[in-house]
């Protein structure tokens, strides 16, 4: 999946991407890093097809119906129960599926019959994430999935995302958090200066910047 030499101007005339080229690796967790406002969400919108990408230099991405996209936020009606919300999402792809509580991850079994209105913000997002992961798609997009979550829920979220890649699915996610990032099966892309300033593994990024932590490495890449 490749974006080849993509330039893009915002409606107000600002150049957001200038000859941007990016390769996303299949079967991996591709992590898009970059400061606020650099264009990560805009790029995900193009990849998802939410912003029209026909005739643009996006090569090898699945069509929209084969992509699951978790945007920021987690809207759902308060009266829905967790299990019903997940069933609804499962049924989008598998109308005949009889999804049971026993098929939920351990972290959600206890709240399966809770109403959405009684969940915390983090729990709501974990439920939506599970629904997205249950969809049978080729490409999964997550926009800052763990932002604002406590460490325990953030770890559960990353575990679920890593499991997708372990099954051979391709994931593209954005994040501002470095603590819980997986180290294996990861492809990093740093968006800076209107293009992709670095791609590679976390170890390669640290070696290239001569740093000991991913956070320090990223700060050097982005400076
Ligand atoms: N439809 C639009 N019209 C005008 N400006 C827009 C539009 N959509 C996005 N922008 C601008 O494009 C820039 C990139 O926004 P985007 O949300 O893609 O950044 P981001 O890297 O995801 O940021 P963050 O990390 O804060 O979520 C911002 O300056 C934003 O204000």
Summarize the structure.
Helices cover 32% and strands 23% of the residues. It is an alpha/beta fold and 223 residues long. It has a domain at 2-72 and 138-222: P-loop containing nucleotide triphosphate hydrolases (Rossmann fold), CATH 3.40.50.
What is the topology, as strand order, of the major beta sheet? 5-6-7-3-8-9
Shape: globular
How many helices in DSSP terms?
7
CATH class of the domain at 2-72 and 138-222: Alpha Beta
The set of bound ligands, ions and cofactors reads: adenosine-5'-triphosphate
Gap between N and C termini: 27 Å
Largest sheet: 6 strands, mixed
Keywords: ATP-binding, Nucleotide-binding, Transport
Family: Belongs to the ABC transporter superfamily.
Organism: Levilactobacillus koreensis
Protein name: ABC transporter
